[in-house]
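B., you asked whether I could sanity-check this one before it goes into the benchmark set. Here's the sequence:
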Amino acid sequence: MVNEIVEGVAAAIRAKIPDARVWQMDIAQGLETPCFFIAALSPSVERRPGGGTWWRVPLDVHYFPQADGDNGELMGMADTLSLALEAIPFAGGKLRGTSRHFETEDGVLHFMVTYEASMVVTGGIPMMETLAIDQGTTER
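And here's what the prediction gave me:
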């Protein structure tokens, strides 16, 4: 699930910025800017009644600008990412991003966004079909 969401984010970035270099794992030494790096912060999954799961995947999309110290470039990219990551391609449809916000640190833009998705398991554990109760009272 996490990999599919990260792939959706990378696809959304490339759709807005076709020549973007997007890293999804460790960045190689000798980084060529501008580029992006997508980091999953602390994904979580919880079971739901009926066999489904609820995934929460917060991401930090790093943007390394062409020119060091160019706040104008960073703010412009924050605007672009805000639109691009509002909804990403996912499972044949779209997945909406929530909690979108950004900050800059050491000349790098950190654009944070969270994606939440439900996954339903089909098949698996059979459900109870009927229940018979034999109820009565006893004398004391």
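One thing to flag: The two ends are 59 Å apart (CA to CA). Otherwise nothing jumped out at me.
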